[in-house]
Write a structure and sequence with these properties.
Layout: H1 2-5, H2 8-34, H3 36-41, H4 47-83, H5 86-89, H6 98-125, H7 129-153, H8 168-178, H9 184-209, H10 212-215
Amino acid sequence: GKLFGTLLPYFITFMLFVGAMSLGVDAIAGEKERGTMASMLLTPLKRRDIVLGKLISLSILSSLSAAVYAVTMIIAMPIMLNGLSGEELGGISLSFSIVQVIELFAIMISLVYLYVAIVSLAAVLAKTAKEASSYVTPIYIIVLAAGMVTMFTGNSEKVLGMYAIPVYGSAISIQSLLVGELTLAQFGLTIAGTVLIAGILTGLITRAFNSEKIMFNA
């Protein structure tokens, strides 16, 4: 757990962001650029319903990649490690309880929704997909940095409040989970912090969708 706890949080956090970024930019900024978004906004649908439909559908698609990473980590790694001889890795083994599996999926799914909300807000404020990508790039760098911190801090003791920090809190929660030290309080703070920020961003996206100037690139 300590061995993979220094690497996997980094890879998981940034790979999930890549999935959300590639989908979100085209689904919103791309549609604005092509004019299909304008046609959708002219329908009797409420703007709030369109926002929720976009975010939920993007989250589901992005969560598929989260599921792949989780299943790979839960099934493949323990089999790989348990199959290696003691001489190669000193008898290292890795296993997860049902509770840890549920916690891992919850952390990853909430993180995916946060990423989708971040990318969607950048995309809705942009006039073109290219412009949206330029907005998302600095955020991508921040996500990389937040994930990389876990590689250098190792399994050192962390203040409880750190688990409420978006992205970074998810990374250190995954790290703590891998070493079997994730407490209920840490898990709760991680989910609460992530969902809170995602909810705020969802509200901002809804307000942007209600602005004719923003949505019709006026």
